[in-house]
Design brief:
The protein is an all-beta fold and 124 residues long. It contains no helices and eight strands. The strands form two sheets. It has a four-stranded antiparallel beta sheet, with no helix packed on it. A four-stranded antiparallel beta sheet has the order 5-4-3-8, with no helix packed on it.
C-alpha cells in the first residue's frame, strides 16, 4: 500500500506521512511477483482505524464490497480489478481530537483476468 501526494500517482510520500485534515489522499494497493497478464488485484474492503490494529473496534470503511462507502462522499474508487494495482482516494479525517493518527487496511484478492469479471466499475 503506497500513499501518494498527487492525483497522477507520481509522487509517493516517503517516510512518515504528515497530512492535513481534509487533505485529499491518494492510495495505491499493489501486488508484485504475479503475472499482470493473467491476474488483477481486487480491493474487497479498505478501512481506517485510529490504532495499528485492523481488528480494532473503532473503524471507518472507505471501500465496501469493491465499491466506495456510500456514506462517505470523499471516497473515489479510481481503479480496481483491472491490473496488479488498485487505486482510490479520500479526504483525510481524524476519529477524535486526541487521536490524530490514521491507519489504513485493505482486504484484497487476486482475480484471473480470463474470466472477465474482475472489475465491478469501469476505470477512467
Amino acid at each position: 500500500m503506497i500513499p501518494y501526494q498527487d492525483y497522477e500517482f507520481m509522487q509517493p510520500f516517503t517516510g512518515k506521512v504528515d497530512a492535513e485534515l481534509d487533505q485529499e489522499m491518494h492510495v495505491e494497493v499493489r501486488v508484485e511477483g504475479v503475472d499482470s497478464r493473467q491476474f488483477a488485484l481486487v480491493m474487497d474492503t479498505c478501512w481506517a482505524t485510529p490504532v495499528n490494529d485492523p481488528n480494532y473496534n473503532l473503524r471507518w470503511d472507505l471501500i465496501i464490497q469493491e465499491c466506495p462507502n456510500p456514506n462517505d462522499d470523499t471516497v473515489e474508487l479510481i481503479q480496481n480489478g483491472v491490473s496488479t494495482s488498485s487505486r482510490f482516494s479520500f479526504r483525510m479525517f481524524i476519529f477524535t481530537a486526541n487521536s490524530t493518527k490514521l491507519y489504513l487496511h485493505c482486504a484484497v484478492h487476486l482475480c484471473l483476468l480470463s474470466n472477465n469479471r474482475c472489475s465491478t466499475v469501469s476505470s477512467r
